[in-house]
Amino acid sequence: MDVLKCETVDGVLRELQVFALVYNMVRQVMLEASRRQDVDVGRISFIDALRWLQTARPGDELPKLIVNPHRPKRFAPRGLKRRPKSSPRRTTPPQHRTKALCGT
After folding, report:
1. Residue 8 scores a pLDDT above 80
2. Rounded-to-integer distance, Cα 77 and Cα 60, Å
3. Percentage of residues in the chain with pLDDT exceeding 90?
C-alpha cells in the first residue's frame, strides 16, 4: 500500500477501501486460526494468513497457520522497502523550473 495507483480522488478512495477490506479479512482469518490453535492472535503469521486467503476456494477448511515463536523483548523497527530515487529532490516550484529551462 506504499504507492497508490489511481489518479482520481474516487479511485484513491476505492483503493484505500479495498486495502482496508483485505486487511480486515486477513485479521479475521488470524483471529479464527488463533482460536482454533489456542494461541494468542499476535503470534499467528499475517503473511501465512494472507497467502491462504489468496489460494483458498469457497468451502476450504482453514488449515493450521504458522505460529511465530514467543519473543517478549524483540523490537524491530520498520525499514524502508522502496529503493530511494537516484534523481535529486526538487526544491523549487514548477514555475521557477520552467523559467530556468526556457532561459527567461
Report:
1. yes
2. 35
3. 56
